[in-house]
Predict the 3D structure of the following.
Amino acid sequence: MKDLPKKIRFLVLLFAVFCWIPTKAQNGNPLQFLSAISQSSEVNPAIHNQTEKLVIGLPLLSGAAFKWNANFSPNYIFSENFSYSFDRFYNSLGEPGDAAAVATLPLIYLSLSSEKHTLSFSLSERMLFSGNFDHEFLKFIDNGLLSYSGQKEDYGPISIKTHLFKELAFSYAKQVTRELSVGIRPKVLFGQFFYDIDKLNLSVQTDEERQVLQIIPSGTYRVSGPIDVQYHPLEDKTIIKPDLSAGDYFFNFKNMGAGIDLGFTYELNKQTTIALAIADLGFTTLNYRAYENTFTGSIDFTVGNLYQSSDPDAPNYLEPKEALLALSDSLPYITSAQAFTQRQYQLLPVKLNLLATHRLNERMKLNFSDNLTYYNGQANNYLSAYFNLFLGTRFELSSGLNLYNLEQLLPGFACSYTGKNVQLYLATNNIAKLVQPSKAKNLNLRFGVNLLFSTQPK
């Protein structure tokens, strides 16, 4: 138990270094093809509920989402018994690391349809993580410092972005004509935590005159959140520590932003419907407790304190996770921080969704969609083709193929059950890896439980 805080710190540090989690995230989860599920309208606010009942999402479960997209899988570093190896990670990767992921945690979801109108309200936590790294940095971690004495090596760049915010959304859909439905979802965003380091470079060199090995990070990073940043002149270090209050967690009105989703659906004929939507057209702001930090010096190791991390049975061994934690503990001594002088804006990844549905008969339909995500000058495309089968009035199954960036073909699956008072659903874009998540480079998962309450008088 005594080592638990160190293990938690190590996992957080490892996650920050190696997980560029979304902002290039895929948006093609097959939940959008389940017509009976209210949350399918989150792709396009013009989609109406297919029930006259009040839909209440189960907190933390209904609409929970996780998306992972990378050129490596967790088993590159972790084995079946959760032991890790940076050498295995380095040899398995063989190229610069690139990862992207998004997570959504629903807190409140309400939706109600009445005649030609649908109203929805939702509150959720959204997390975007993104980053890439020079894979040679893995070799540096695995070797330790002993082998670099008298040499000069450069590593980088390493980029990391972490964005956590709360989203409060109101959605309204209206059936304008028999064929046309339009929808709008305005959002209020509350920035909670933001961390962005762009192109960090690391140099390792020896100062022969002083007989020390120097690790020199170069770059700046921005951070905003429930933190307290103080400079201690006697120790000549900058301390960043948590300073969480209830107001920071629930609604941070000093880092507010805004967004909007727009969409429409159009029925070409009784069998075919097309839909178009643009989502997350918006921004959060960085102002309250926001700092820009600059690396200003070097971390020095005398020759007698050099370590190696590759051979536990050899002298001067220091486990890689302990070495990483020691380096992170030294960073406050070579960091200067300055509060933001003016508000900064962080754009959300914009998503464009085109959907076409063709009903073959009362029990079968075909679905096609194209999802485009654009962020920071980069575009990612996601094509899907799915076949839906209705089993009676309660079960709906959907299966098909997803083509990500015209490179990877993934088999997807979605299903739902709608009872008198409850809905259950599950959707994934990569069913082959759902049972082996440790081997997944691409995985998009959504699931949930909805409670249904009749609004009609008995």
